[in-house]
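Entry type: protein chain
Record version: 2
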Amino acid sequence: MVLDETDVQGRKTPRRRSIWVDVGREVKHLEIDYSVREREKQVSRIVDDGGFKFAVFFVAASGFLASSFSLFATNVINTSLFFVYPPADSLGGHASLVLDEITLVGTIVGMLFMGHFADRAGRKRLYGVELAVVIVATFGVIQASDGLMVQSSTGPLHSMDIYSWLMWWRSLLGFGIGAEYPLSAIITAEWASTQSRGTMLAAVFLMQSVARLLVDGLSLGILEATSHRWNVHSDSESEMPMLAVDQVWRWTVGIGIIPAAIAIIMRLTIPETPRYYAGIMKDLRKAVKNTLMVYHKNISEKVSKPAPITVEERQNSSDEGEVYWYEWYILAWQYLTGETKVWRTLGLISLLWALMDVCFYGLSMDLSNDLAILAHDPAKDKAVCPNNPPWNPDWWNCSPLIYNVLKVNSERFIWIASLPSVIGGIAAVLAINRFRRRHLLAATFILISFLLAVAGASLIVTAETSQSHLITEVVYAILSFVFNLGPNTLIFVTAVEIFPTIYRGTFFGIAGAMGKVGAVVIRVVVAHTVSREASLGIRLLVFIPLMLASAVLSWNLPEVQMPTSSNIKEVPVEEQQQDFDNPAAPGNEESVGSIQQGERLNDRPQVGRRSSESSFGEARLQPEPQTSAKFHILQRLKNKALEDIAPNPVRDHRI
């Protein structure tokens, strides 16, 4: 306990120290009946003064890490699964394809449902729900089995089918993973300060690549640990390796429960996002209270009553009352099809996400069969095994040992896919405020097109000349790096920035779901093509026009950043108040909640200065003597406030 509050009689009262501090006293005087813009100004001032909030980052990143871990864990276990439980005719003879597709379909449903539900019921109600689904589904996966087995004249009979169980549990797992996408993005975007928003969103998405590397590394470690206890180096037809490998895949998937449980605990402690209260619930008091609970370093500052609203704002505010459930959809449709034509923005980001996932999933970096093509050396490995088991991706190796196959698979995943993607994600975190989002996105799409041309041509040529595919392996690793530097990260970040608070979850869920629809389509195509060099090379070349089209489309995305010139300097908020009220009177301090300052800034002539953060007046910029106005590549860009990128629409009075 700490003594840090004083009551009206001067006595100290105890208050428990916590990450999120209760600040009810500071906001009791705030009124609720103010326009959306006035409420958002209050929240924006406090949040933007807080910088990069690591507590918020850990809450969002832990959930994204946990869900991504479960996703990649279920993808890499197919080799082990097929070794212990030969699929034969299970799931129509396409067990791997069906399990992947059912997971993706679950992801689509999760994105759509949870994204929309976050807008209608609030973000707080869903914190941890999606991770609970992931935990339940993970328990189901690791406990799936064929049940009781008995021998009959026609062979072994089982009381259950493990692949039928896995279909159900992986569809539920996909739902939880899909639900995590909009929630992690919304939590981060609505809690982050304006300038740290891009960095924090990119850092959260980096957790997907980190999870992938953890899965591959842990699966390799579990294999090595198990090999010391069980003889997995013996003939693959014996039962001892089967026992060991069955443990390997169950442990690999089951470990994902640990980060998910930790993430749930963290999710349940963070308050509702202030922008949800300000923009959707129209409750300024709760919005500011929750903001101060997280950014509690501002508690010592005053939170004053907002400036009176204008007649027009009051008319709009009075029309913000409760709406019937179906009116939300009418308003959303009007917003999409109104004068601003927001449906174009939604369609554009959805199309970009779909085209990106078609190419990314088409590269098959999570499929051992396609990575085996890159490792194949036609000059040395000319054999083709007629009875190659489904768990052996190396078709030229006619005497495979399961230990060697699993070890080689993990190493290929790490060096070609996982490690480059982590490095690319780190590069995205460093670059996201150095370059305009859409410019960097377009540039990386063009670079991907070039790399696809090199990789595709190299595969075709080396297959004809019976040469090694070393060049293609290197290019594949670079592709993994560039995808996470560009499209994977930037589309995720941009999709949550360009829509207003009231529709942010729904529209983000639609865009993300369209991306997974592209993944569903390309997976079917990949499954029905021959896994050989020429086939993969042609597939890569087909993706080139899609990536070039994506580069062109990227230029039409809304602008979410603005440059700063070297001849512009920021004036602190405290100095602004002194400048406008009484320049000769020092010590005149502006409170966090004051909005009159922003109004005065807007009333003054705008010649010779530019807003640094947003139209909310976070800092006034004054001109210095002209030196150099050249923009250089290392200059940081300023992010626009979410409310400036996509303001909450005013309710149509005709409804």
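Comment: The beta strands are 2-6, 12-15, 149-152, 155-158, 561-562, 568-571, 620-623, 638-639.
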